[in-house]
Structures are given as C-alpha cells and as structure tokens.
Amino acid sequence: MPEEDLVDIKFRLYDGSDIGPFRCSSSTSTVDMLKQRVVSDWPRGKTITPKVVNEIKLISSGKVLDNNKTVGQCRTPFGEVAGGVIIMHVVVQPSLAKTKTDFVSDVHMVITVVLLEVSILWLLDYKIIFKDIIVTSMWKM
User: Fold this and answer.
1) Residue 88 burial (CB < 10 Å; 0-12/13-18/19+)?
2) Under 8 Å between Cβ of 15 and 90
3) What count of other Cβ atoms lies within 10 Å of the Cβ of residue 115?
C-alpha cells in the first residue's frame, strides 16, 4: 500500500470526545468499514451507544457519507492539510424498531380506541334518534 494512499481519520463523537486517529487506505477502505470500526471501538460509559452499523451516520465536510463509497471518493480536495488528520463527525440514531409485544400492545390500544369512538358515535346517534322521537311526540300532543 503506497504511503500516499494512507490517511489518518479521527471520529468526533456527540460529546466532543474523539475515537482515533486511525490510519487507513483511501482507495480500499469503505465508509461501511469505518462505521464498523466506530461501533467496535466505541468508548464504554457513554449515554448513547450504537448497537449496529446502521445506527451511525458519518459526516465529513458537511456531507453524510454513503456506505458503499471509499474514503478517497469522500475526500474533498480543498481544505485538507497534507499529512493532517481528517475529522469525521459521528451521529448516532438509535433504531426505533419495536418489539413484537410493543407492536401487539399498540394494535390492541388502537382497536380499543376505534371501538370506543364507534360506541360513542353510536350512542350519540341513538340519543339524537330518541331526542327526535321525544320532540315529535311532544308536537303530537
């Protein structure tokens, strides 16, 4: 691997702390590989911890990086100092996937609310019908 191909990357976390710097190849290292490295080297004791690679977004030069691109494809040609460290910001977005029991309980709650609304509408209609019967029978008297 030629020396020009190697770059140093540091990952800046949400609280201002860093992971790295790490030296990697700009032509063979992909963004997905970098994300795997971030997940495996995540510091212990942080309030927010990614569990899988899909929960992480890497941002460099104001752009969210695509998983399938190499580091070399993501680099901006201007603003980098030769021999300097590239800083990528790490954004963690924990997945909101619900468990099966949460889903069943949510469905149960929705069904209950719909049944309650239907019951209220039925009672309101029923009351209006009775009200009309009482009013019309009072007119007949």
Assistant:
1) buried
2) no
3) 10
Distances (CA, A) of 106 to 64, 112, 120: 33, 10, 21
Full-model pTM: 0.62
Torsion (CA) 70, 34, 4, 76 in degrees, nearest 10: 60
Q: How far apart are CA 21 and CA 24, in angstroms?
A: 10
Confidence of residue 74 (pLDDT cuts 50, 70, 90): confident
Instruction: Please say whether the beta carbons of 31 and 67 come within 8 A.
Output: yes
- Exposed/middle/buried for 98, CB within 10 Å: 0-12, 13-18, 19+? exposed
pLDDT at 90: 92
87: which strand partners?
10
